[in-house]
């Protein structure tokens, strides 16, 4: 239940205010060179305190590998790793111990397990996604060898939307600004919108778009594990995600079939489609075109505002949290979206090796 | 890869124009009374030829159970079943044998497997969903015992949308019309829209909404198998689905956190939330409120229109399919959405039995 | 729970006196030619009534494939199949409905599931192994392409043992006699011993040895899924099996390490070992030598003798079963042992494709 | 591939001479009190250097929990843990870097993965079983609550065998001597035999017997996951194990069915069997009687003797290892056998909660 993937498989563990966040990657092939700097950089893209628009929790978030790598290469054995917690401020949460914060997992955890680690969300904290970013970074290294590239960027913050197709923007510029929207003008507006939410002690949601380029034909399993179904599963498992659509998505459902169908054409580089409403996936299997999808993030639940709620004794009460908060989770969620996409694609890359005799 | 679920687990097999569609349900507890009429009725809701707005393929689609049921009850042993194909018209497809129909799985199957059963889509045909409807019907019987009810309905066809909340409509009326939209007036417009698409030899897409009532707190696993992530996975595995959103969904991402948070209140029936933007799920775990979600269906790819494409020898060509087609898949997809939701909820119902010592 | 294998995966269903025994094979690569005669022959080697020393239940046991094969080849899609029951004599079991036969699964099934299909053992019947033989036959076809050959033979019946090494017998002669011991002289004694048990209305057990030749180095996963651990798991899942040993087995534990170690030598065909106490597996991974192991079968529990027991109301009683019985299960178990070995090796053959980048 | 169990599931990682050995336990129910002293004591029973007859590698082997435990209780979240390596002496292995030690995993690892961590066996080292002992200790704590008790002891060393039934010995005395055979007289002979092997710079094998008491009826799944099949799988996954038998085992195959069958009788404590050749398992499911089985351990491959072998360049060579070795692995393997049995039983205890509606 804390594992993800069939062959390339991550098992995640750890809590927000326990010893740290860790994971085990099983099924990574032997012989992959591990670029430690690249992995740490992916973690840095996720870490709190990286810019003025993210939470000021100050964590170094350095990954320590515990197994599976020898002389700089994977060994085919499980890769254990750990990111130790440091800036924990557990006591900040003592006054929230016995109340159920609105739209958090406090109430549902107690109902499910009979108890919970109340410190900073415990296991339900988005800090758990550290394990996904580390594993995703290794998946990215594996996929790079196959010429596969995964990019995600912030497409919308609140009402402020990047109106361009991903084809008309420079994906290499995603990290050129702190909001991770590769359009300077729109990025500026997004940053202002997030700062406004921060000042309001409130939060704002939005949409991340991801693009996967270089996937050959044949990835994906036809029925329950369609490539987009596994991608959707991965995305919906990220904290605060409320929706997923790929290719033409919800809007495309308004087209007629004759408008929506992607006509096959013959090109110098083989069979291609004229349009790409299919989002690079047909019948659940990659067709060689770009894979692209949108992920909806709600405004996260942690506000620094007075809110009515109920406590463990079922008395109504009021909370007024103090401290730090993350007015918009999207810039830091970009590497998480990329990481989960990488895990899915790496898994299907390996599964695809055994289709034919 | 053709199995779905952790504990309550369906394995599906069969092709559109082979012997039939079958499945095996493993993990269904012993002692469940099997209401054969109910199961057959669920299949009838899915079957082609059921009304003037669906494909006229004429299949009885009668389920035959092969194992696991004795004296009317499940035995805890695997439940095998089969729905034999009858009205196959395989020869209709001979002229499509060597071409790649636009936005179908023809090309990707060949690329993945090196060959394909070209007759009617083979394994990629939506006919495979028969297995899901049978298994879902048994899951529904199991969940009914727990007071859990699952309803889906057509919310939008092309641009024609039912603008009401599910709370303001009578879910018992879903099957009162052939389009399965429980609002007579909107249903009539939807039917007209589908008939128009049929006359155009074209197709039209839309949205199905599902509502799950009576789920207690505690279903769902916190990290990768969040209840909504498994629901999304299930929905995105249905043919023609392009998107999934639950609770406040994509629109909710435009709210601020203070607007979006669901305040806990104390009621006579225990702790509840004032609003339900969470869609009944918090931290991936059910909170006792109604679970609701939307599923986007593209206009399906099978048209009776002339279309440009490419054949197996990579020559450009034109196809002009004849025969029958389904102008809108949504009315028949309603029981499929319900079935897949039932499989997910049944699985989490069983998983939830082992949370606490 | 009714599935076996990670990638090449069999799901089995069916009861002894229900509609039949079926299965689904998922994960078989596309493009494998299916030799129907070979598969049916494997079933014939398992079927009852094949000789004077087996049960006289008279079943044709013809396999009917339901999916996954098109134009004589696998398609990469799940292969469903069914062997229909015919000679059921269900009424024979009515008098056993309410008693617990000694050393059968009657009592444990009732305790586990609250009810059971009492007809002929239901799901606990060895008739279920039909599914394994069909799937194993397909696995054998896949492995033959890799030059891998699996042979099992009866090594001991009661106290009568074939004292030779498998290297000193002609494995092509296994089916040359009805007891499947490839030594005419010993076979004759075994047959006499089985006939004696039959006349006594009693049963006799023994040992089957299996030899797998042609496995290259590298099959097996180092920790929990050591190649021999998966083989043992497979064998111990066969009805009536009480023990498993590979290579030097229980006897080898009496040697010292310096006697037991297999010295590596250089040969024309590469690195080999001088002896093979390791049974072709070191550290859980195949080393290129022959894999061989022994499987212990108890005398099966179905006797035609008066026996004391207890009924459902917990009253002591006496049963005196009539009808047919199988005095020795070993000759018919030979193809089952081979089939399960084939499933394990096929699975590891596929897993082994993804070890290295 | 490095995970074990369906519900109560251990994922293991780590190498002999890397950072340490770790694991993640997923699926442990919430609310279990963790007795740290008990867990550490189990580790101490496994650790090297504990007595004069084990290897003198000197490791503290202290377990550090990384997640999943809060205020002394499990939380239902994954339990990560680590045992750091200390006394590594990696350089001892430099001279073995390029040779294949006889009957070790050196050659097969290189063949499978293309490279290997040569230091002390790396992942193939029995040091990996630390993860199993920690997880097994938690499984034991869970099972103790259900009144289930698991004991293993050394039954044979070389030719020296404890000839008594486990019923005639005092299982509470297993740890009363360093060889873990609960019969002082036999233990003394075993110790002398092991010391002799040590002086010879050689090794000696033998048999461990395990007894599981207090398992209620109903544990085990009828087909592939028979309770004894899962136990056998677990045991055969332990380093150096060559065989497994339960109940009457290999010897019982020489009985006739009428001798072997266990007659049901009515007792004050309900239905029981008069004899227990079934080893507490019928049809793969526990019947309430004691479960007992034997595990064969070969003499381990690490000797301090001159041996012929081959190196990486395929040249024949001679090795003459120096340093420390373990003349007999059985005393330290006792807690490993118990741990693996506990993992299997805990898993089936949880699975058994979902048999019936």
From TrEMBL, chains A, B, C, D:
* Pathway annotation from the record: Metabolic intermediate biosynthesis; chorismate biosynthesis; chorismate from D-erythrose 4-phosphate and phosphoenolpyruvate: step 7/7
Q: Does the keyword Amino-acid biosynthesis apply?
A: yes
Binding annotation for FMN: 123-125, 239-240, 283, 298-302, 324
Q: What is its EC number?
A: 4.2.3.5
Q: Which UniProt keywords apply?
A: Amino-acid biosynthesis, Aromatic amino acid biosynthesis, FAD, Flavoprotein, FMN, Lyase, NADP
Cofactor(s) recorded for this entry are: FMNH2
According to the record, cofactor stoichiometry and binding are noted as: Reduced FMN (FMNH(2)).
One of the record's GO molecular function terms? chorismate synthase activity
Please give the subunit comment from the record: Homotetramer.
Q: Which PANTHER family match?
A: CHORISMATE SYNTHASE
- Please state what the protein is called: Chorismate synthase
Its source organism is: Mangrovibacterium diazotrophicum
